[in-house]
């Protein structure tokens, strides 16, 4: 048991070093030697715990998503009333946890790397699928998808992810001119307008 615990700690140490390297230098500027130096170990030690750098990236993506999902669940856990639960979930999408600079640097580096690296692309695909699934579940459990087809509900979840992702990118590039609070309120208004319009159309179709 102790040996497994030590291995887990060492793997976490290496992943943290990888995240710092990528945040500062990008993926292209973070070869094994650089990661090992940041972790305070010899390069051979990295290969003892990971097959290669791509495996480190895959695990780091999973770790960051797990951390965000844990924070998200904690944010909405205490709210049972649907509208309040939805509001807290939407609030989280525009919260500081979702705008953290270091994971953000890693995330954008992975987006670039995914264009040429199939393994990183698979990791990012998994990330987006988990993200969309969490948003869709929030919409379903708070009654926002009532009257929507399955495809429309999934499209709405995808649109919310796209809005948050685009706003976050702008904030990273031009933070002084982007207010996450205002973007949160505008997104909430967009959802209400969309759902109201869908309801009106359905009523007009009802004989």
Give an account of the 3D structure.
The protein is built from 9 helices and no strands. The protein is elongated. It is mainly α and 207 residues long. It has helices at 2-25, 32-39, 43-49, 53-76, 82-93, 101-114, 118-141, 150-174, 180-205. The protein folds into 2 domains: 1-50, Arc Repressor Mutant, subunit A, CATH 1.10.10.60; 59-205, Tetracycline Repressor, domain 2 (Orthogonal Bundle), CATH 1.10.357. Helix 1 (2-25) packs across helix 4 (53-76), helix 5 packs antiparallel against helix 7 (118-141) and helix 7 (118-141) packs across helix 8 (150-174). The longest helix has 26 residues, at 180-205.
Give a brief rundown of this model:
This protein has 207 residues and is an all-alpha fold. The protein has helices at 2-25, 32-39, 43-49, 53-76, 82-93, 101-114, 118-141, 150-174, 180-205. The termini are far apart.
* Whole-number count of domains: 2
Reading off the top of the CATH hierarchy, the class of the largest domain is best stated as: Mainly Alpha
The helix content is over 70%
Amount of beta strand? under 5%
How many beta-strand segments?
Answer: 0
**Biggest β-sheet description:** none
- Can you tell me the overall shape? elongated
Given the helix and strand composition, which structural class is it? mainly alpha
Q: What would CATH call the homologous superfamily of the largest domain? A: Tetracycline Repressor, domain 2
N-to-C SSE string, H for helix and E for strand:
HHHHHHHHH
Parts with pLDDT < 50 across at least 5 consecutive residues: none
Which CATH architecture of the largest domain is right? Orthogonal Bundle
Tally of individual helices: 9
**Average predicted confidence as pLDDT:** 89
Say what the CATH topology of the largest domain is.
Tetracycline Repressor, domain 2
Give the termini distance in whole angstroms: 68 Å
| Radius of gyration from CA coordinates | 20 Å
